[in-house]
Design brief:
- A hairpin with a 2-residue loop joins strand 20 (268-274) and strand 21.
- The strands form 12 sheets. Strands 3, 4, 6, 10 and 11 form a 5-stranded antiparallel beta sheet that branches.
- The chain is elongated.
- By secondary structure, the chain is mainly beta.
- It contains 3 helices and 42 strands.
- The chain starts with a helix and ends with a helix.
């Protein structure tokens, strides 16, 4: 008996669940089938967005229908039956509607009746029975205000022409044509969004007319009102605060954004909505990388590349669409990479920096880093990736990476043998030396078929010996000047980059300390022998000497102001 009762209860419960599910499905189908829509229509029953009828001097009849380019319009309502309707600026603030009615049926009735049927559950007002208001009317209930500003229209529907409050509103896709330019910012200490006085962009049939919202002729007044709020959508159907300007407050406004924790672990996308037209603002951090300099460019092999970059909590004033208005207090990483432009997998630098400094809104931190350019020649990319491990929640993630292209060039790496010994030092002048060199670049390539030039500077020259004399530098002053002697020899490197020659450094005894009173070095420079040349493609040789770029490679003569005798020279040869 107990089992039968239990079976009955199970079947009853199962039937109840089935009926409940069917009722739920029917409710959804009913809602879809009878979804409520509304729109502004012209005499051909097509949707229409109204133009501003004024000009830059006179607003005329504002956005009134049946004036200028605007046709006579009505309102079509679907899915709600026959109702009294009107158009309004509206905003749903925390579940409650705020509205400004801007159409009327007559000077006594606020709403017009949808007396005409279009079929399919849609009804509309007879044309001529609705006016987009060019004035203020105090008699209807609710009162009617100027249709003075651009905006998205909400359609109110009620059971009487003067319901007092508008409680049933539908967002339409119709507009009073135009737009707003409004500066906005978030204050993280007050947790408020500040809205400055907007610029109104009236869209007339002939173009755009711009006026400030505080303009006495075109701006807000007691009878020309704006509905301004902070919303999660861009039209005003889900708002956290809303103000009727100027009835409840005047610009600038400070409005509640409806947020929770304000820190670098949260972000909130909001809209400053003015008469149904939304302008985005993001509440949150915004780390941005910015490369300030890369020097030198080009950099030569083995040189030190210095680069400077900054990390900003970038605040994109005056709109803050990308945030940057919340402090960054959580540690995060910066990844620094250098890789070839033509092969991103060829990475020559990959390192990370931990940032533990707080970065306030709009502030930045600058970093200076060096890299020794030991890599093959080519075009390279320096990449700075801020918050590489996503420790910070940001309004804008796409600006976390900054890149800069630079060129790394090869240098010549000569090997020099003097009388069979690998060195670039010659002990004495005045004797013959066999000089052999092998030229290879930093990419490991032999410098083949190159023009190699050896130059001796300020040595003894039998044709034009060193001469010093006093010369007039102007009408009253004289100065000591001297000749500068240069001699050079040109040869070619072979296929493997080798070149050989016998040289006899001439030296110059005038550099001896007993002649230092002549101060010859300051006049013509030092005695020197150096190597230079051009590659097969006519590119001048480049060397790095003491981390500096030069086109000359030194061959040092240790004693260039005295001469070796044959006995000492033969001893050297041994």
């Amino acid at each position: 008996m107990r089992d039968s009762k239990n079976d009955f209860n199970k079947k009853l419960f199962k039937s109840f669940k089935t009926i409940s599910f069917l009722l739920f499905i029917l409710a959804i189908i009913s809602k879809i089938a009878y979804s409520q829509t509304a729109r502004i229509i012209d005499t051909n029953l097509n949707p229409f967005d109204l133009y501003f009828t004024g000009d830059a001097i006179d607003p005329k009849t504002w956005y009134q229908d049946a004036m200028g380019p605007n046709p006579d319009v009505g309102i079509e309502l679907c899915g709600a039956g026959q109702k009294y309707v009107g158009a309004a600026y509206a905003m749903n603030v925390n579940g409650n509607w705020k509205s400004i009615l801007i159409t009327y049926r007559s000077h006594t009735d606020a709403l017009a009746y949808t007396d005409r049927s279009r079929g399919g559950g849609c009804y509309y007002t007879s044309h001529g029975f609705l006016t987009v208001s060019p004035s203020y009317l105090s008699t209807p209930s609710p009162q009617v205000y100027f249709a003075a500003f651009p905006g998205r229209l909400f359609i109110a529907y009620e059971n009487s022409p003067n319901p007092g409050n508008l409680v049933n509103l539908i967002r339409s896709d119709n507009m009073l044509r135009g737009d707003y330019d409004v500066e906005r910012s978030f204050n993280h200490t007050e947790v408020k969004i500040r809205v400055k006085t907007p610029t109104i962009r009236f869209q007339s049939f002939g173009g755009v007319i711009s006026k400030s919202a505080d303009d006495t002729t075109f701006g807000v007044s007691n009878h020309r009102r704006m509905l301004v709020g902070i919303c999660s959508d861009n039209a005003g159907t889900l708002c956290h605060s809303g103000i009727i300007v100027p009835a409840e407050a005047t610009f600038p406004l400070s409005l509640e954004p409806g947020v929770g924790s304000v820190d670098d672990k949260n972000k909130y996308d909001r809209f400053v909505v003015i008469n149904g037209i939304g302008k985005p603002i993001c509440i949150g951090a915004n780390l941005k990388a910015d490369i300030l300099s890369v020097n030198p460019d080009p950099v030569y092999y083995s040189q030190t590349l210095s680069f400077s970059f900054r990390v900003m909590n970038y605040r994109d004033t005056p709109y803050e669409i990308k945030g940057g208005n919340v402090p960054v207090t959580t540690d995060f990483k910066i990844r620094i990479r250098i890789y070839r432009k033509d092969n991103a997998s060829y990475v020559v630098l990959d390192q990370s920096i931990i940032v533990d400094d707080n970065i306030m809104p709009g502030d930045s931190i600058t970093f200076n880093t060096n890299w020794e350019a030991i890599a093959k020649s080519g075009r390279y990319i320096l990449e700075i990736f801020v918050d590489s491990e996503n420790d910070i929640v940001e309004c804008e993630e796409l600006d976390n990476i900054a890149t800069r292209e630079f060129e790394l060039k090869p240098i010549i790496l000569p090997r020099i043998w003097i009388n069979g010994n690998e060195t670039n030092k010659i002990p004495f002048s005045g004797a013959p030396y066999n000089l052999t060199m092998h030229l290879k670049d930093s990419d490991g390539l032999n410098v083949s078929n190159a023009t190699v030039i050896l130059i001796e500077e300020n040595g003894i020259d039998s044709f034009i010996p060193l001469q010093i004399w006093n010369a007039s530098v102007n009408a009253t002053n004289r100065s000591t000047i001297a000749t500068i002697n240069k001699r050079e020899v040109t040869l070619k490197s072979d296929y493997y980059g080798f070149a050989s020659i016998t040289i006899i450094p001439s030296g110059n005894p005038i550099y001896h300390e007993k002649y230092q009173y002549l101060n010859i070095s300051s006049l013509i420079g030092n005695y020197s022998i150096y190597l230079t040349g051009r590659r097969f493609n006519n590119e001048t040789f480049v060397f790095i000497i003491n981390k500096s770029v030069t086109n000359y490679y030194p061959i040092e003569v240790e004693d260039y102001y005295s001469y070796i005798n044959s006995t000492r020279f033969n001893s050297y040869e041994e």
